[in-house]
Amino acid sequence: MTEPNKLVIEGGSAGGLLIGAVINIRPDLCRAAILQVPFVDMMNTMLDPTLPLTIGEYEEWGNPNQHKFFKKMFNYSPYDNLKESNYPAMLIETSINDSQVMFWEPAKYVAKLRTLKKDTDKPLLFRINMNAGHGGSSGRYDALKEIAFTASFILGVLGITQ
Question: Domains in the chain, please, with CATH?
């Protein structure tokens, strides 16, 4: 067991959608959240059949063009449910060459979040990897640099210095 001020939650891609939804529902649940290549603007993405994965994802998420799915999807869409609130410290990472979650989704999410985030004492970091795709950097050293960056964020937020 733990407590909110010691908890850091993390998710990538569809897991980033989950973390975004959790943060919207319970921003007090954790000390920090890490969203990596997060699928956070699901309504716009799922309403655009010209994007690479949209039609194939209807089976998993539902087709928002159908009324029976639209409201359910909208209710947990991270971007659409951001509100003025105190949010945990956040690290949001994307990759410019991601073919599955376009880089503008998390960029748009961060821009909106910056206008709604009431607290100023918790960091909201947005990092774009200019040389990676959906799975992050390739190559042992570049992948280790990404892990080190994330670990540094976690340690800093938790106040662990040694």
Answer: 4-41+77-158 (3.40.50.1820)
